[in-house]
Amino acid sequence: QVQLVESGGGLVQAGGSLRLSCAASGRSFNTYHMGWFRQAPGKEREFVAVVAWSSTITFYADSVKGRFTISRDNAKKMVYLQMNNLKPEDTAVYYCAADSDGSGGYYYQPGKYDYWGQGTQVTVSS
User: Fold this and answer.
1) HEC string of the chain?
2) DSSP-derived pairing of the beta strands 10-13 and 120-125
């Protein structure tokens, strides 16, 4: 069992930066692949980024590639999402998620993830 708590969201102007954090509790955090998803009003939850348990592999959505960076600190049980050059279309609730890799599916599919945080709001003004 893993509990996830996101923080770091807020209101920022276009072109600005935010760093989201996800604090994990529970056992075996360092065996989970960790992802960030986001959901804007009226839209489906969409994949943003994922980092493998070993930190050696990362994937990003095309819409954030080159602007966002995902990282993790297994010793601290933390996952981060550094977001630079933010755009109004990045406005959404951002969720942290943990994948035990015990189920099928692809890393960009929400259904592959076993645990979710409550989300943190990011609002980018133009």
Assistant:
1) CEEEEEECCEEEECCCCEEEEEEEEECCHHHCEEEEEEECCCCCCEEEEEECCCCCCEEECCCCCCCEEEEEECCCCEEEEEECCCCHHHCEEEEEEEECCCCCCCCCCHHHCCEECCCEEEEEEC
2) parallel
Contact 4, 98 (CB under 8 A): yes
Q: 9-49, pLDDT tens digit by residue? A: 999 999 999 999 999 998 889 899 999 999 999 999 999 99
Cβ proximity of 97 and 115 under 8 Å: yes
Closest CA to 95 of 115, 68, 116, 70: 116
Dig out the tokens for 21 from the structure. Answer: 């954090």
| pLDDT for the residue 55 | 83
pLDDT tens digit sequence for 77-113 = 999 999 999 999 999 999 999 999 877 789 999 999 9
| Residue 125 CB partners (closer than 8 Å, separation 6+) | 11, 12, 13, 14, 88
Residue 35 backbone phi and psi in degrees, to 5: -125, 160
